[in-house]
Amino acid sequence: MTVIDKKQPTDRLQDNLNQVQRLIERQRLVEDLVHRQDMPKHDLVESLVHKQNLVELEHKLESLHPADIAYILEALPLDDRLLVWDLVDSEDEGEILLEVSDAVRESLIESMEQHELVAAAEQLDADDLADLAPDLPRQVVYEVMGGLDEEERQQLQSALSYEEGQVGALMDYELVKIRPDVSCEVVLRYLRRFDELPSQTDKIFVVDEDGVLKGVLPVRRLLVCDPERLVEEVMATEVVSFHPDEDAADAALAFERYDLVTAPVVDEHGVLVGRLTVDEMVDVIREESETEALNLAGLKEEEDLFAPVIDSVKNRWAWLAINLCTAFVASRVIGAFEGSIERLVALAALMPIVAGIGGNSGNQTITMIVRALAMGQLQPGQAQRLWRKELGVSVINGLVWGSALGVLAWLLYGNFSLGLVMLAATTLNLMLAASMGVLIPTMMERFGKDPAVGSSVLITACTDSGGFFIFLGLASLFLL
């Protein structure tokens, strides 16, 4: 039986990881000792190497929740990961594959035989199998589908017909439906016939004879209402529902906004076809947050921490190439003012400060704008108003921090005019950062691109080149 300790989950996860790593290290040490002494693999050595530590490790894994095992697998190098994966209970493999990141899932699937993949997939419900199916070999999916009953096969085909990121691809088909013209007592008797209710059941869906959703009956209301009252008298008719082709990220925001546990999914005729659950929506929110953070850094996808070098290179090279081009532009800006820098060496020491503070301010603005766009809080007509607001913030910050930098430059180099140039350059570069921080994501959104992709790379390029040009240009005009 798996026992889950809910106290201090972060510490618990780290403790579990440390214990697994220690067991793996002991196993590796024993194997290395056997190989170095060139000992024959007789029964005693075999028992020592393959049973002692491995059995202890296997027992440890049996006590862990699949989500915790997934965390451990993501934190291990490939060789150790595969060692642990071989010891995982086969009944948990399907659920663990759902929990790990895409990159780690790919490495695990590559290590498995076809019959192992089929066995793992057969442990999953139709909706979970739909999540995993795009990563499985096609032959495995066909074989698993052949073992499903007609209803499950239709559910799986329905889920696979939707694109990744749509509500239909994530909806759950296990739900409880009742008619509106029955009494609450009848509903209670009906529920007692179940061995257990579907997970996350906080409400029962009320449909007519055609399957059209009429309302929902919260379980907490069912338990306290008069058993003789009809369902239609106590059900809630104002229901937050979704269509299968809606964006899952929008549905996740609705779950967060309305504190939903489950919500019905209906087709264009209002017929109930499934439900969304909060655990799926939490996963969507987490994945959206991770994707946004990666895109801001110019990464295309989540990267396996211990992936082969070539895989990491492929994931990172595109925006690094763009960054190289922008860095070359910045170097040419500096090159245009070589004479000014030679005549006043202090410029070389101070210009990175101007560029750096502009880049930091621009990233703050662009992060706020990208988040507002992702949550639907920023409409196209509001961009100009927001730009004026950000411009005001940048002017105030520029005057405050530019003055501080100007005084510091004056004290260090004994040149009051240099301090004034530092003030002016800082303020102007912060204004440039604010303008580009609003312009870059809104323009990308207008042209149908993800506003998060590479935004931080672009804003840094603008503030670096712009900061160098502004500072050196002002210095050339007023100091030389």
How would you describe this protein?
With 480 residues, the chain is mainly α. The chain folds into three domains: 9-170, MgtE N-terminal fold (Alpha Horseshoe); 177-296, Roll (CBS-domain); 309-478, SLC41 divalent cation transporters, integral membrane domain (Tetracycline Repressor, domain 2, Orthogonal Bundle). Helices cover 66% and strands 5% of the residues. The protein has 22 helices and five strands. The chain has helices at residues 9-36, 43-62, 66-74, 78-87, 93-99, 102-110, 114-121, 126-132, 138-146, 150-160, 167-170, 184-191, 219-224, 231-234, 248-258, 278-296, 309-335, 338-343, 346-374, 383-413, 416-446, 455-478, and strands spanning 177-178, 203-207, 213-218, 262-266, 272-277. The protein is globular, with a radius of gyration of 30 Å. Keywords: CBS domain, Cell membrane, Magnesium, Membrane, Metal-binding, Transmembrane, Transmembrane helix, Transport. Belongs to the SLC41A transporter family. GO terms for molecular function: magnesium ion transmembrane transporter activity; metal ion binding.
State the end-to-end CA separation: 79 Å
CATH class of the largest domain: Mainly Alpha
Oligomeric state as shown: single chain
CATH hierarchy: architecture of the largest domain: Orthogonal Bundle
**Average pLDDT over all residues:** 86
Subcellular location: Cell membrane; Membrane
Main location: membrane
Function: Acts as a magnesium transporter.
Transmembrane segments: 391-413, 419-440, 452-479
